[in-house]
Amino acid sequence: MKILKHLLFVTLLLPDGLTMANKIEETALGSNSYVSYNIPPVTWLNSPTVTKISEYQFDIFGREIHFSVVNQQLHEITKGQFPVKQTTETESHFEVTLRGDCVFLDDDVTLQGLKKLRVYARKFVSNGQTLTLQAPQVCHHIESGRCSYLRKAGLPSNGADGKPGIASPLVEINVQRVEGNIEIISEGSDGNRGEDGGDGRDGEDGEERRSLDTEGYPCRRQKKTSFWNPFRCDDKIGYPGSQGGNGENGHRAGRSGSGGDSKKITLNTKYIFGSFKVTQRSGDGGPPARHGYGGRGG
User: Fold this and answer.
1) Do 199 and 153 form a contact (C-beta atoms < 8 A)?
2) For residues 210 and 237, what is the distance between their CA atoms, to the nearest angstrom?
């Protein structure tokens, strides 16, 4: 077991607007520890208090804070608004601060829809569990709990751009010591596909034009082998019809939205008794949309 006996400042940052698919950044500190640390069970007596600072800001305060109950507490105090799994917006809003003596990552926990997460404690303890911080799935519309996306623009317009993915939360952990093996996974969400461009309009058909001799008008004698027809002229020569119009060009496809980046994660600590691993994944950019087809000529 390796003990780091100096002040650590760990800062991981992926730049804003990163669109590279499957961009993964991993950083590990310390070494895997085989020591099992004591994590007390959750009881009513040691349940932390949740304070609502504003519509989207919450403080969780207690002597012992278990991550396994944070999701439930936030779900209750926000009346179901948290966690945020799907949204039509392009950024998250919820900010959560944990303040306690001991913070326990006592189970594999996923928090989805945070903008910021701050931890202030004397100890951060885990026995190999993982904290996953996910950005919500971005939808163009949400219908009956399902995401829907842009398909094809109508006539005659360019496709709309796809929405960008949402960044993972900004994380700041300030503890005196880390005990056990802790892993944090931070994931931005994928961008949306752009809308297909609208098809071009068809060209107008040319006008039909006839000869000056109208049907039913007496005609001159035709070929020698023909006979006099006082009602119809079979060998009349019409004038050329007018030229049909050109079809309209197809319209531009919308640009795909960029993937959400993985925001900065900062660990300020003095000791690591075990290991602290961070995996950051940016979201993928949306798949390409198609340009519209050109219209048919007249």
Assistant:
1) no
2) 8
